Amino acid sequence: MTVRIYQPTKTAMQSGRAKTRQWVLEHAPETARRPEPLMGWVAAGDTKNQIYLSFESRDEAVAYAKKHNMTYVVQEPRRSKLRTKAYADNFAFTRSGSWTH
Questions:
Q1: pLDDT in single tens digits along all 101 residues of the chain
Q2: Contact 42, 49 (CB under 8 A)
Q3: Structural domains in the chain plus CATH codes
Q4: The whole model's pTM is what?
Q5: DSSP assignment of 14-49, as one string?
């Protein structure tokens, strides 16, 4: 049983960093997804792909995977650089771009 340990990224609709500080342990799918013949919904043979365990730190998630004899892959998060901007910079005398109205 293989699991993936990662820190979720913020969604496109999010401006803050809510729900991105915790680490998530997610099971890899063991069977392929297929459409259900009766309703046409997507179904899978295993139910482990519905389980997401969250941990406060990466070390806790790794310790849980080791304790339960799971092979795990840790995906380190990519850090983005924050560029601080101010509205007043649009009107600064040292502005390099041209003024367009």
A1: 789 999 988 877 877 777 778 999 999 888 888 888 888 888 887 888 888 999 999 999 999 999 999 999 999 988 878 788 888 887 888 877 776 65
A2: no
A3: 2-9+18-91 (3.30.160)
A4: 0.69
A5: -SS-TT-SSEEEEEPPSS--EE-TTT--EE-S-SGG
